[in-house]
Write a structure and sequence with these properties.
The structure is a single chain. By secondary structure, the chain is of the alpha+beta class. The chain folds into 3 domains: about 220 residues, 2-Layer Sandwich (BirA Bifunctional Protein, domain 2); about 130 residues, Alpha-Beta Complex (YbaK protein); about 100 residues, Rossmann fold. Strands 3, 7, 8, 9, 10, 11, 12, 20 and 23 form a 9-stranded mixed beta sheet that branches. The protein starts with 20 loop residues before the first helix and ends in an 8-residue tail after the last helix. The protein binds one RNA strand through helix 7, strand 14 and helix 14.
Length: about 575
RNA sequence: CGGGGUAUGGCGCAGUCUGGUAGCGCACCUGCUUUGGGAGCAGGGGGUCGGGGGUUCGAAUCCCUCUACCCCGACCA
């Protein structure tokens, strides 16, 4: 490709509405343009990246024995009513009505459609196992789309669905997908982690997420240095608490006007945050439920949602509801003499001589002890694991990093096959409900995640495998030098003939502009052809990622570049 | 959903408080000079000032209203 024919829509200034680096760079490098909130057009350069990612995904899915299909984006409501999700999916499901007043939705995922296909087409166990996938546009009407294509409403997803006769087969299908995903993310050149994930919401037996490590990620993942434990922080159990010591203080009420937060309480009373307990009211099935944690710990919403009597998803009670239940506003409530169900985190239950709200405005209690001043509490693991906690598998300590979820694998069980009657006959002629798995990859999100992980002050630094072009060929002032022009044209053809994806900058512009633009769009390898080097029969080669400039004989240029391309085939 | 903010040429912004001929930088077009890390000079094109309504002799500017978009929050307890 020549820059003179490429829609190179680069910007010199950062867009005003882009917050994170990948969003800024995707706009500036001319990869995408926003059409409306959460809706993006992929420009030629961006689409090349997307296609590279798709090719890797397709290659590995096919290698793993999956078959590609393509399902409609718009789906009839009947299928969703059959699975029960028409009523349960909520406002993220974009619903629409056609001219005949029939209800449809724009698919946020395709379990219903694929299950419908399979129940119609698969009759015998001989047709199993079956794994069907597609790479297609999804729509989820996010409350708050943000970060460009990272959390868009419309996005490209690879979704695969496996069907097996029994659980053992389903587990094999799941393992095969898990392995394929490892190969896919390894080939894209991203630094990723496989983490245990919450399968509660969809109700499967096993689930893991694939996360790209990046500060801008929206998920917290916990892992140990040994590499033997990795899980979404939502799921990471906190370690067992220390034992509680004997009470040393007597309970007393202290006046604490204008003191609300733990840090204020701690400072005012001179008590460290770990001995200041906080009491959170969440909505429960029968009025609010109080959850008590140490001041230095955070409530884990997934753990809380699993408590009996707590409404899922967890919602904090309104300040009015808190006042009605406790007789004081949030900030002055505590477990002593409280008339609502109380569940206490194990670490908070191990506290002694602690501070908590007095259930009277502007007052706290100090020197409080369980069993004496408040009843021995019901306990549960409610807090998030924190940096330095012992790893749940007993090996080393936990580190917590931010991650961007780019893939998710699920063993679904029979959730959809049962409600939608997807059955087939086994060897004995008996009808068996199929075991399903589903497996997603955020194709468009991978492009953004790659930039989050790999950029510098000059722009994007693409991994070779997903770069829009492998090498940029930059003739210096070719419009003034027939020699430079002729040699660069010849080299361009030679690179193409060698199967190398080259972008020739054949515009009559100053070299500085070329360098800046090629850095911005992140082409990983660069050849610069100028009169000076040409006199020596040489050319300059440089790697985008912090490389030194190398002087290479012109006739060796193609081989030099070819030897430096990182083309991971996925073999081995 | 709650809170905050923004909307002026393709992009980034000033002008709005205090009403009076719509501006700057970048980008774009032409010419000359320049030419190894986003050149200089000169000339030029391009704007219903988000939409609607109102006040006024006169509205980007004041009032009402609608819309779009962005940010923060949904863990103070």
């Amino acid at each position: 490709m020549r820059t003179s024919r490429l829609l190179l829509a680069t910007e010199r200034e950062d867009p005003s509405d882009a917050e994170i680096v990948s969003h800024r760079l995707m706009i500036r490098a001319g990869l995408v343009r926003r059409l409306a909130a959460g809706l993006y057009t992929w420009l030629p350069l961006g689409l090349r990246v997307l296609r590279k990612i798709e090719d890797i995904v397709r290659d590995e899915m096919d290698r793993a024995g999956a078959q590609e299909v393509l399902m409609p984006a718009v789906q009839p409501a009947e299928l969703w009513m059959e699975s029960g999700r028409w009523d349960h999916f909520g406002p993220e499901l974009l619903r629409l009505r056609d001219r005949h007043e029939r209800d449809f939705c724009v698919g946020p995922t395709h379990e219903e459609v694929i299950t419908d296909i399979v129940r119609r087409e698969v009759r015998s166990y001989r047709q199993l196992p079956l794994n069907l996938y597609q790479i297609q546009t999804k729509f989820r009407d996010e409350v708050r789309p943000r970060f460009g294509v990272m959390r868009a409403r419309e996005f490209i997803m690879k979704d695969a669905y496996s069907f097996d006769l029994d659980e053992a087969g389903s587990r094999r299908s799941y393992e095969a997908m898990r392995d394929a995903y490892r190969r896919i993310f390894a080939r894209t050149g991203l630094d990723f982690r496989v983490v245990e994930a919450d399968s509660g919401a969809i109700g499967g037996s096993r689930s893991e997420e694939f996360h790209v490590l990046a500060e801008s990620g929206e998920d917290d993942i916990a892992f140990n240095d040994a590499g033997t434990y990795a899980a979404n922080l939502e799921l990471t159990p906190a370690p067992p608490p220390p034992s509680r010591g004997p009470a040393a203080e007597t309970m007393r009420e202290v006046s604490t006007p204008d003191v609300r937060t733990i840090s204020e309480v701690s400072r005012r009373l001179g008590v460290p945050p770990e001995r200041c307990l906080k009491t959170l009211f969440v909505e429960g099935d029968a009025g609010p439920v109080a959850l008590v944690l140490r001041g230095d710990h955070d409530l884990n919403l997934v753990k809380a949602s699993r408590l009996d009597g707590v409404r899922a998803p967890v919602a904090l009670a309104s300040p009015d509801a808190v006042r009605e239940a406790a007789g004081a506003g949030p900030g002055a409530v505590g477990p002593v003499g409280l008339g609502v169900p109380v569940v206490v985190d194990r670490w908070a239950a191990a506290a002694r001589d602690f501070v908590c709200g007095a259930n009277r405005d502007d007052a706290h209690l100090a020197g409080v002890n369980w069993g004496r001043d408040a009843p021995e509490p019901a306990t549960a693991d409610l807090r998030n694991a924190i940096e330095g906690d012992p790893s749940p598998d007993g090996r080393g300590a936990i580190s917590i990093r931010r991650g961007i979820e780019v893939g998710h694998v699920f063993q679904l069980g029979r959730k959809y096959s049962e409600s939608m009657h997807a059955v087939c006959l086994d060897e004995s002629g008996r009808a068996r409900t199929l075991e399903m798995g589903c497996y997603g990859i955020g194709v468009s999100r991978i492009a953004a995640a790659a930039i989050e992980q790999s950029h510098d002050e000059n722009g994007i630094v693409w991994p070779d495998a997903i770069a829009p072009f492998e090498v940029a060929l930059l003739p210096v002032n070719a419009h003034r030098s027939g020699r430079v022009r002729d040699r660069s044209e010849a080299l361009y053809e030679a690179l193409r003939a060698a199967g190398i994806e080259v972008l020739l900058d054949d515009r009559a512009i100053r070299p500085g502009v070329m360098f800046s633009e090629m850095d911005l769009i992140g082409i990983p390898h660069r050849l610069v052809l100028g009169e000076r080097r040409l006199d020596e029969g040489a050319i300059e080669y440089r790697r985008r990622r912090g490389g030194e400039t190398e002087i290479v004989p012109l006739e060796e240029a193609v081989a030099h570049v070819a030897a430096r391309l990182d083309r991971r085939s996925g073999e081995g």
